[in-house]
User: Fold these one by one.
Assistant:
Number 1:
Amino acid sequence: MIAIGCDHGGYKLKEEIRKYLEEKEIDYKDFGCMNEERVDYPNIAKEVSKCIQKKECEKGILICRSGIGMSIVANKFKGIRCALCHNEFTAKYARLHNDSNILAMGADDITVNEAICILRMWLATEFEGGRHQERIELIKEVENENMK
């Protein structure tokens, strides 16, 4: 199951992503927003991140105008590795090397087609493990030292 959330700037792209997930019969939980009325993105990012932390959903997608704010908030949560991706290359390596569990995208930075390609690559790519797992363990150490 995928948790998905956006602010008002990412609403239109989120709706297109939802359509894609439905077409591919991928289950998701929508944390809003549900229209283009102004909302505060930290609240949406918080809910999606908590859902991943609690293992209610395996992965998440966050969308705002740039993707930056959403990714900053998500990465404040222990165990969250949110990657802001702009293309298929960054999506592939976010999963392959960094085991990203939340994908952030900027609605003003990419087209719907590009977003679908990014999402498809991110979902299809498995974590490589090996030396990269060692680095994930180092990230966990940093979290344990600094997220008390």
Note: Residues 135 and 141 are 10 Å apart (CA to CA).
Number 2:
Amino acid sequence: MQKSFDLIFVSSNDHKYLEAKNILESFGIKLGFLKSDLEEIQSSSLEEIALRKAKDAFSKFKKPVITEDDGLFINSLGGFPGPYSSYVFKTIGNDGVLNLLRNNRKAKFVSIITYCDKTILQSFNAKLDGIISKSQKGKGWGYDPIFIPKNSKKTFAEMDDKNKLSHRYKALKKFSNWYLHK
């Protein structure tokens, strides 16, 4: 049974919204979008950043919102770029990340979806283990051309079904299970 929800995704990233919209529609949740730059504090805690973004979004728009923050954590780089993933992508890009790596290419993507309304501030996180490829493959956005999920030979950018197994999918699935039953 599909219900009509007044839930808004707030982000400056159209790609994240489109992924979230497609994923949540599969769970029967209709998602609106407000494009906005949100306060993004500098912190080594992805969850702290995500919580602050959600509070900022709710204070701006006064509607129930969800936000997403994610990070790519590379083992051989001590978890770098982690919560600084967006900045690192903008400054050195995928080529720069590939140039930093040698043998140990293990990595994980972490996604935190945060819901905020007048009384509730709730986060849902998920991770997906994988490796960093040796070169960029496929057409995709962000780190998708260099991240290969565990048990796959393809990067996210080469996959047709990324939205059914990604870190974002897993976090949104946790969120939707909670949201539909709250």
Note: The domain at 7-179 is CATH 3.90.950.10 (Maf protein).
Number 3:
Amino acid sequence: MGPLNREEYTILAQGLFREPQVLVHYDPDGLNRTLSPALALRIEEQWRQAELRARTLGRDLFNSPLFRLAEIRTGSHSSLSLGLGDTDYREYLESRAHPHETPRADPLGTAVIVFTTDGLVPVGKRSQRVEVNPGRYFTFGGFFDRGLDWRAGGNEPSLFGCARRELEEELGIQVPEQDLRLLGIIYDQRHPHPEACFLAPAGKTGVELLASRDAEEISDLLLVPLAGLASFLEEEQSRICESLRGGFEIFLRLLERGAPFGDGPAWAPLVETLS
């Protein structure tokens, strides 16, 4: 793999984590930002200005309740612990505008790298209507949403469930949690926030995936061969979202090392690439 510009992202944790290896501690009382009256007013003003810009540019902007990544620890036996609090998109937008003045909102996002049964990696372009990274290369995902992403019973956040939800909404595929692998947590320094990058087998060919995707969510989809992924990353890195560049870097290094991604037909394209 050739030289990469890593100034715009930082890999906070990396591995090949299965769902039982990722421990999530949710503490909305202890792990939130403290909002002073002055900061609350600045959030309101920043949001008002952002709404005006969005209307002028014809971009989508809406607030949603999000999870804040406040703590991250790697443990023995290849485990990863995440401490989460509460935030929302309005807090994120303000902290993005003033990253050095107050503790960052740090909403946790997700990005999923998918590979098809015929050895292709689908990569989409973000809509020109989105507020962040319009027109740049991304895969599939979104923010870890406090309104949606909970285990049955509703008292424990489900990060792997968020990745499953995004794949079903955007690609029309259902991937069991046991087939998802968390590659790591990447911090986007350009649009300050952390992103959990996953790997998932599509269980479909590239052609089948093109037919099943949500065309409104993903209008422009490239199918990059696994063997050409390193070249794609090197040549297009300035047009690829920062967090995805970090995810691709982890994935390619695991491929180089011959990592044991998984067994069974779903993982056969990676096995063939390694051989």
Note: The first strand starts at residue 9 and ends at 17.
Number 4:
Amino acid sequence: MPTSRKPDAAELLLEILELTSFGTTTQRQLTNRLRRTHPVRRVANRVEHGLRTLIAEGLVESDFKDGVEHFHATRAGLAALEQRGRMPSSSAVMFTDIVGSTEMIAELGEAAAHDCRKRHFALLRGSIDQHGGREVKNLGDGLMVLFADPAAALDCAQQMQEAVDADADNLGLRIGVHAGELLREHGDYFGTTVIVASRLCDRADAGETIVSAHVRELADQQADSARPERPQPLGKLHLKGIPRPVEAFQLG
């Protein structure tokens, strides 16, 4: 929730480092994100100074894409976060999965199916980069991705579905998204949040994105404007390995 309390320099540096740990992001994106949680004066100047400090310490590095400077945490930066056990409590986890992978291999053969997968993942990664996500791992037929901003995760999911739907390979894509606390170890992530996101993905059909009520609520809080889509309530779903039902929605 937003707070008027002015964060001290060390706290702000850690927050900037956390946000850059999810993937490449611009100074403007960082400023907009921090302005939501710290509506204090001169946030842009403090973000700029913080980025330069982190770069000087070797915790963040930058490069240019289409003339715009993008920032991302280095391995040393990720290690520094892991040592401190830092992870935003609103982190969103996304799982994607190709629908009909076995049938695709049977129809096209291993080599051609592999080429289809490569093109499919290129589409997904393009959306991930645009929305500041961080790919954790490739699961063969899908990806596990983290987002510091749940609203960005839902926007990314929508763009992924649109891109895959328009692609000539005609593959089906299902997506699940949940948000919450994560356990981090050796570059991977664990815990109930991860399990719920994976199980929501399992429940989706081709072309569907299923999100928890919690991630939808966080996204609505953090979005710059009201979200245009009308999610379809699915009620409380009983998910394998999760003791309590999870209220979920299907995105349009």
Note: Confidence is low (pLDDT under 50) at residues 1-5.
